[in-house]
Amino acid sequence: MFWDDQYKSQERIWGEGPSILAVAALEYLRSHRPPGESFSILDIGCGYGRDAFYLLDNCKCSVRGIDISKKAIEIASKTVVDNRKQGVEFELRDFRELTQNVYDIVFVSNLYQLLNKEGRNDLRQAAREALKPGGLFFLSTLSVSDPEHRGKGVAIPGEPNSFQDRVYLHLCTKEELAEDFAFLDIEELREREYDEPRATGETHHHISWILIGKSSRGAPSKREDGG
Question: What is the pTM for the complete model shown?
Answer without folding.
Answer: 0.91
